[in-house]
Amino acid sequence: MKITIMGRGNMGKAIGHNLAMGNEVAYYGSHDTVQEFGDLVILAVPYPALASIAKQYQQELKGKVVVDITNPLNFKTWDELVVPADSSAAQQLQTALPDSQVLKAFNTNFAATLMSGKVGQNVTTVLVAGDDDDAKQVLKDALAQSPLRVMDAGKLKRARELEAVGFMQMTLAASKQIGWDGGFGLNA
Ligand SMILES: NC(=O)c1ccc[n+]([C@@H]2O[C@H](COP(=O)([O-])OP(=O)(O)OC[C@H]3O[C@@H](n4cnc5c(N)ncnc54)[C@H](OP(=O)(O)O)[C@@H]3O)[C@@H](O)[C@H]2O)c1
Questions:
Q1: Which of 30, 32, 60 to mutate to test the pocket of ligand 1 (most atoms within 8 A of CB)?
Q2: Which pTM does this prediction carry?
Q3: Which three-class secondary structure string do you get for the chain?
Q4: What's the pLDDT tens digit per position in 112-131?
Q5: What's the pLDDT tens digit per position in 161-179?
Q6: Checking CA distances to 182, which of 19, 58, 170, 176 falls within 20 to 30 Å?
Q7: By alpha-carbon position, which residue is closest to atom 15 of ligand 1?
């Protein structure tokens, strides 16, 4: 499968490390123009970049599976999410890209746990929310040769809960109660 990753930072590299197992991955940074998108597009960028990417590439992203991985924190206060309490970054992205299949995934995984494939003794689990079952299967298939486990977290509405989990995990690490190579683990 051809996969496009927007963002060459910590998460772009860590997600790409896994997706490169069995797929063709192309990376783009903030100064690049994408000529052709793969069937699966990972937006490994800060939350504020989602709106500008959606505006720039709305046509090109039609029919694509687009994955939002952001944790939309207020980084000045570290005390709130900047999206409305009854919504999420992923739902906002779906509104901005009505003809794409938007998924929320990877936001509850620290980059180090995607690189190692482990959270403590647990296999790193990628929680995926989205309204389109076929789109979720595309992501699952793309990760099939990686060591990561994929779990269906439900409809895109669940992105709100995933963003809350990501927020909580970040505050635990920022206050040094867990490491940035740790986090929530799941026993299946
Ligand atoms: N780090 C984690 O463990 C972690 C865990 C879960 C979720 N997340 C989420 O993952 C996202 C990325 O985090 P990160 O840690 O990878 O950040 P990062 O290391 O700062 O990387 C962000 C990357 O996004 C690129 N970028 C910004 N705007 C772009 C655009 N319009 N088009 C293409 N690329 C663009 C930046 O490129 P330039 O340097 O060229 O500007 C940079 O390479 C964030 O939303 C974060 O909340 C992170």
A1: 30
A2: 0.98
A3: CEEEEECCCHHHHHHHHHHCCCCEEEEECCCCCCCCCCCEEEECCCHHHHHHHHHHHCCCCCCCEEEECCCCECCCCCCCECCCCCCCHHHHHHHHCCCCEEEECCCCCCHHHHHHCEECCEECEEEEEECCHHHHHHHHHHCCCCCCEEEEEECHHHHHHHHHHHHHHHHHHHCCCCCCCCCCCCCC
A4: 999 999 999 999 999 999 99
A5: 999 999 999 999 999 999 9
A6: 19
A7: 10
